[in-house]
Amino acid sequence: MTHKLRHLTVFIVAAIMGISCKKGTAQHGSPLPNIILIVTDDQGYADLSAYDHASSGCHTPNMNRIAEQGVLFTQAYATAPVCSPSRVAMLTGKYQGRWDSLMYWTPGLPQEAPTLAELLKAKGYVTAKFGKSDWGRNFHDSTVREFPLHHGYDYFLGFSAHAHDFFLLDEETEKKTPDPYGWSESLGRLYRNTTKESFKGQYTTNLFTDEAISFIEQHQDAPFFIDLSYNAVHHLIHEVPPEYLAKWGVREIPKYDPSAGTYADYYWKYTQVNDISDEEMRRYYLANLNCLDDNIGRLLDVLEKNDLYDNTLIIFASDNGGEPLSGANNQPLSGSKYTMFEGGIRVPFMLSWPKQLPLGQTYHHRISTLDIVPTALEAAGVIPNKSEPFDGESLLGPVIHDKPKPTASPLFFKFNNQFAVIDEKWKLVFAENYNPADRPITSQIKLNEWSGQVALFNISADPGEQENLIDQYPEVAKRLKKRYTEWLHDMAIANKHYPSMQ
Questions:
Q1: Which CATH architecture has domain 412-501?
Q2: How far apart are CA 49 and CA 56, in angstroms?
Q3: In CATH, what is the architecture of 3-411?
Q4: CA-CA distance, 175 to 259, in Å (whole number)?
Q5: Mind listing the pLDDT tens digit for each residue in 305-319?
Q6: Are 413 and 420 in contact (CB under 8 A)?
Q7: pLDDT at position 224, please?
Q8: 408-414 LR contacts (CB < 8 Å, sep 24+)
Q9: Could you tell me the residue ranges of all domains in the chain?
Q10: What's the mean pLDDT when you consider all of the chain?
Q11: pTM score, two decimals?
């Protein structure tokens, strides 16, 4: 897509959504806020020390600064228990099932669904993405809709894949590797816009933060939108700079050597509890998290140094629940990434905008990552076209008044044959347990008993999903199943409105 065509796309999006393209001020006349979306990868629900339920050993003082200067959410849900579909919904404000009839790993991004970057760009924001770009399909291709420069970003530094090596970012290693462009096990050069570039000797978490800081310092006249999508704390979790390994008392594992075989084999070897013990895996995870937290601190320091913090909306979320093979912790929830139990879909979430939002507040009402787009658009003074509604709602008013969202509509989930519907205190779920090594990430009491059958939980009283109430409240289960069936019907109808995905 040419530079001229990208600008034409922005104006088309603005026309569709009914967006004012006047730069620099929102409709009320005050300066537009900068917006930073920080997405962490597979962070456990208990692995944010701002929470009262934080896991042992977890210490995230810099992430906590976002909560201290803003709002901490205890009931935030991703739309899927894995990365790709979750991130699609997060950046479109729409259920991925509207165009992905499979509702599984590979939703992709339709031309007809504007992203947050496109909508903000049409308002006059300068936009950038740093890190992981993962829509589930069309990886390693800079010409497709899924590539960041073709859905609203002015600038991109990162990778187009599901996962990437933290250290091996150079062309030499890439050329020597039999399989450098895998789906979950990529390595080699990163994209700077549409050009591949080597970053030998660098580390992704540090590099993505450096680039975001540079972007902030170059665009202080703003408004800017930064999508900072780290690949931490995803596998390979043992890949951490030496100073963090020393701090957490774990050994340095040799980096992948192309002469030893495929990268896929190396990747698989170190995601299992064999060469790395369970106890070691947890410490590698905490070391990786420690490095990530320090980098987020560097970013916040730059905002404060340049007097940008108060008028910057920071949105922080994990893309899904913690991974059972990386040493993450989701307690007191049951389950993990890959499952529809709470540990797979309830995620760490924070908002900060000191100029407008409360400071140090904990928000206990249920929200969804579908709410990110409407929240950011309201902050930017964007009024979307009502004929193209989002599936989420803005959180600004509810947070300010500490009340539930106005509609409090149910949340729906589908991932292959697993499903869930959450309505008020009730959750109807068909889930499959994924915990191959009996990891401490998962509350095992009764979990296997509920796996593979429809269960009903009162998640207000029982967030750990330990008491199946389906026999006591069959009418509730019937009502929720009916709502879920109706939602599936709505999604099937919506599929017809996305011809670019057919």
A1: 2-Layer Sandwich (3.30)
A2: 9
A3: 3-Layer(aba) Sandwich (3.40)
A4: 12
A5: 999 999 999 999 999
A6: yes
A7: 97
A8: 408/366, 410/480, 410/483, 410/487, 411/77, 411/79, 411/366, 411/368, 412/95, 412/97, 412/483, 412/484, 412/487, 413/77, 413/79, 413/80, 413/81, 413/340, 413/345, 414/97, 414/103, 414/488
A9: 3-411, 412-501
A10: 91
A11: 0.93
